[in-house]
Design goal:
By secondary structure, this protein is mainly alpha-helical. It has two domains: about 50 residues, Orthogonal Bundle (Arc Repressor Mutant, subunit A); about 150 residues, Tetracycline Repressor, domain 2 (Orthogonal Bundle). The protein contains eleven helices and no strands. Helix 1 crosses helix 4, helix 5 runs antiparallel to helix 11 and helix 6 crosses helix 9. The chain is globular. About 25% of the residues are buried. This is TetR/AcrR family transcriptional regulator. It holds the Pfam family TetR_C_30. InterPro entries: DNA-bd_HTH_TetR-type_CS, Homeodomain-like_sf, HTH-type_TetR-like_transc_reg, HTH_TetR, PsrA_TetR_C, Tet_transcr_reg_TetR-rel_C_sf.
Length: about 210
Amino acid sequence: MEANKPDTATRILDVAERLFVEHGFEATSLRMITQQAEVNLAAVNYHFGSKDALFESVFMRRIGPFVAACLAELDAAEQSGEALSAEALVRSFVRPCLALSKDPARGGALFVRLMSRTLVENHRLLREALSQQYSVFVQRYTAAFQRALPQFAAEDIAWRMHFAFTVMFNAFAGNDVLKIFGRSQVVNARDPELIVKHLIPFVVAGLSAPI
């Protein structure tokens, strides 16, 4: 193997990740992946078994470290001993998103977009795996938001978290909704720094707004 050249499985994962972001799961064929990864179909079958399994592998190799980073941020904030605000909790999630978007070794902005797109679409292949493996993430953030927003009932917190995380994942997916209605001259929906700047106050206001 040539120096610094990714092994076959990694090359397949990298190409599949990019194509899934560009075209979505359904529109990305194994033929497209094998052609651009310069491998044959047998190599994909050998390493992953199917397109479904390949998609899951693309996603799961990144999401574990990301969730761990979010929980580490939350741990650090809680260990400070200070009462955490809704904004502090939102930032504990957004900071890992921003760090991931700047780190090509962990997929960079490309994977942030794939992660966001996949979670917003609630992909059938990942729904069960995520609910089993990342229930701690949901439990920890739910408890933290309940402490930060004690004026709201548990059901209200659940709804607000649902809307808040949907907005955040959609924002990081890089979809410029304004282009549906006409050419947007102001919004750059692919710039993570700009997303964070405008996203945090919007989400915090929604989380904290009176019923």
